[in-house]
Each structure stands twice: as structure tokens, then as C-alpha cells.
């Protein structure tokens, strides 16, 4: 049981919610900026694919190291954020994120790839702390019955950030701040601007009045959560999902640049990234409605309306002709049909989405031209519900082990660091197009988990009854 104690009366926190929404947007924006940095720094430093993938390795590796450290400290000393306060946690997270952005300045001045990687690692550590503290704040900034609505809105703006980052961020690096003969300087000013924004947000949070609250949930020692097969296998599912999603996004611009695909340079190819990450926004809106308690007519009508509006936004910022994106319209229609087949059952919908994702990736491996390109881009919309569905299935029935299980699932973001690196090594040895067999295998595992997971779910009480001695020994 989680008990939250507010030390100030509930009131309208619209200003605070607005500032937090900006935070969610920036965090999505900068995460997706890595997809721009990969082909850019690969060309500047003449890197192999596996070396370029160290960008994702360092950034998402920070998530693993940060969350693991937090988890271990929590087991020994209690929840650190509960001691320093969630507001101070956000300020520290913003300061660390700002430091990571400012480190791009010396990295570009000295033209050292290792400094870029160090900057990304520090930025990832800042985002890890923000991940831990931001969501609880959004949930308490208003009436409890509307908490889910506020969280969905903030997450939607996170997806908006990932959608426009390839367009706007790519414009800043490849065009606005691009100087012929000094290409490495193009990242310097944009990241200094981002760092300044983080520092300003930290100052704003210092003076914004926010409710203080304590989490009095029991801290369970040991690794008892791994006794639940839906969690242990779900941790692997999160690892493979995040890894596949980030790997595809990381290589997409280079894939579009292949001669047998489209042969487009980075400055043009970046515009197509908006459809990959924008698909996640479309799918998240639809997924939230699909699993809601609305009657079917309202549910599907709203899904269609939000899909049209989201697609219109993506189309308007991409600058790509409508006839060029017609194949994507067909993929969006396929997404709606698969939602219908899922029948609002999380495990079933997860498995079906993974089947389509695996099929699209395989087509991209075997095909050529624009159809292969759109097949790979289309995977984005089918990635949309995977995090939420896997997470929900994995922690079901954990009882007092829920927080411990959640921490383990966050650590599984390590997949975003390792899977792109593995694909990079394969791209260097067997070719870029065939290297997408790595995310293909990831989706095969998710298919297994989606179909098999309903048989795995047990409850905390059932484990205590079946194996009381084992569970108690794990909890000591």
C-alpha cells in the first residue's frame, strides 16, 4: 500500500503542471535527438556503425546504472527521493541534464568523440532521475480522479517531442547552425540552448510552490520480485522492446540513405523519422482509448479523430508530399484493424502488434525501394503500446514487491544501450539491411511473451501459500 501525505492543501497547480509538461516535452525531444547525432557524428569522426552506436550505449546505459544505483541504495538506506524531497529531486535532475548539454561545448571545441559520449552519459543520468520523480508529481498536481488524464497528457507531449525532434533538431544541426568546413560546431549552440533551458527550469522549480509528499511504501529487501515469472520474463520483454525500438530509430536515416532503398542524404532522410516516432504518438492515443471504459462507438470514433489529427500534425511538419506518404496511411489503417482484433485485451494486443512489427521488419530486410522504407517506418506505430502493456502485465499480482519489480523493469532500459550496439557490429560485418534481423528477433520474443504471459501471472498471496519458506528467505 502506498500512502501519500500532502503537506499543503490541494489547489489549482496549473502553472506547475504547465512547467512539468514542458519538461516531458524536452525529455522526449532530446532523447530522439540521438537519432540525429548518430549519422552526423558518424560522418564527422568517420566511425564504424558499432562505434556510432556507442551514442545510444552511453545514453541508455546511464539509465541502467542510475536506476540500479538508486535501487541498491533504496534497499539499504530507504528511498533517497523520499528523504530529499521530490521537488529537490527534480531540481537536481534538471541541473545534471543541463550539465550534460553544456558538455557538448568542450566536446565540439576539442573535437573528441569521447567527450560527446561523456556528455550523453551525464544527460542520461539526469533523465533517469527525472523519470523517477516527475511522474508522481504530475499525479498529485490536482484531483486524484483526474490523475490518469494528467499523466496521459504529459506522456502525449513527450511523444510530441520525439515527433518533431527529427525535423526541428535536424534543421538546427544540418542547416541553421551548419558551417561549411566546421561541421562539428553545429551541435555546440543547440545543446547550449537546451542546457540553458534546463537551468532556467531548475530555477523556476526552485520558486514554484509544489505539494510535498512522502512515500511510505514498505521497502522489501532481497530479490523476491523475481519469483514472479510474469515479471522475470517481462523484464526481458522490456529489454527487447526498448532495444528494438531504439535500434530501428538509430539506423533509420542510414537505412533510407542506402542506394537500393531511397538513396537520400541525412538532411532529407531526417524528415521521415517524424513518421517513425510520430507513429508512437498515434498509437498511444489510440491505445489509451482502446483500453478505456468508453462504449465501442465513442471509443472507436475518438480513435479515428485523434489519429487523423495526429497524422495531420506529422504531415504538416515533415514537409513531404502526400503522395509519397500514402503507404504510411495504409499502415495507419492496418494499426486500427489490429486494435480491433486485440479486443482491448493487453496481452493479446501486445502479441498481435509484435507479429505485425516482426513482419514489417522482415519485409524491410528482404525488400527494396520506398516500400521497404515505409515498412520499417511503420514499425513505430506498432511499438506504441508495448511499453505500457508489458509493464502492466509484468507487475500484475506482485503485491508488496511491486516497487521492486518496477525498478527492475526500469533497469531493463539497458536494452536500448546494448541492442543497437549489437546491430551496429552486425551492420559492419554483414551489411546494414541484414542487420535488422536483430530487432526482428526481439519482436519474436515479445510475441511469445504476449501470448504466453496470461499463464504466468501469480499473486503475492499465492506464492506465500505455495512456497512460504522460500519466499520468506528471499525477503530476509
UniProtKB/TrEMBL annotation:
<dbReference type="InterPro" id="IPR050375">
    <property type="entry name" value="MFS_TsgA-like"/>
</dbReference>
<feature type="transmembrane region" description="Helical">
    <location>
        <begin position="325"/>
        <end position="342"/>
    </location>
</feature>
<feature type="transmembrane region" description="Helical">
    <location>
        <begin position="273"/>
        <end position="291"/>
    </location>
</feature>
<feature type="transmembrane region" description="Helical">
    <location>
        <begin position="53"/>
        <end position="73"/>
    </location>
</feature>
<protein>
    <submittedName>
        <fullName>Glucose/galactose transporter</fullName>
    </submittedName>
</protein>
<keyword id="KW-1003">Cell membrane</keyword>
<keyword id="KW-1133">Transmembrane helix</keyword>
<feature type="transmembrane region" description="Helical">
    <location>
        <begin position="156"/>
        <end position="177"/>
    </location>
</feature>
<feature type="transmembrane region" description="Helical">
    <location>
        <begin position="17"/>
        <end position="41"/>
    </location>
</feature>
<feature type="transmembrane region" description="Helical">
    <location>
        <begin position="349"/>
        <end position="366"/>
    </location>
</feature>
<feature type="transmembrane region" description="Helical">
    <location>
        <begin position="300"/>
        <end position="319"/>
    </location>
</feature>
<feature type="transmembrane region" description="Helical">
    <location>
        <begin position="112"/>
        <end position="135"/>
    </location>
</feature>
<feature type="transmembrane region" description="Helical">
    <location>
        <begin position="85"/>
        <end position="106"/>
    </location>
</feature>
<feature type="transmembrane region" description="Helical">
    <location>
        <begin position="228"/>
        <end position="253"/>
    </location>
</feature>
<dbReference type="GO" id="GO:0022857">
    <property type="term" value="F:transmembrane transporter activity"/>
</dbReference>
<feature type="transmembrane region" description="Helical">
    <location>
        <begin position="407"/>
        <end position="426"/>
    </location>
</feature>
<dbReference type="InterPro" id="IPR011701">
    <property type="entry name" value="MFS"/>
</dbReference>
<keyword id="KW-0812">Transmembrane</keyword>
<dbReference type="GO" id="GO:0005886">
    <property type="term" value="C:plasma membrane"/>
</dbReference>
<feature type="transmembrane region" description="Helical">
    <location>
        <begin position="189"/>
        <end position="208"/>
    </location>
</feature>
<dbReference type="Pfam" id="PF07690">
    <property type="entry name" value="MFS_1"/>
</dbReference>
<keyword id="KW-0472">Membrane</keyword>
<dbReference type="InterPro" id="IPR036259">
    <property type="entry name" value="MFS_trans_sf"/>
</dbReference>
<feature type="transmembrane region" description="Helical">
    <location>
        <begin position="372"/>
        <end position="395"/>
    </location>
</feature>
<feature type="transmembrane region" description="Helical">
    <location>
        <begin position="432"/>
        <end position="452"/>
    </location>
</feature>
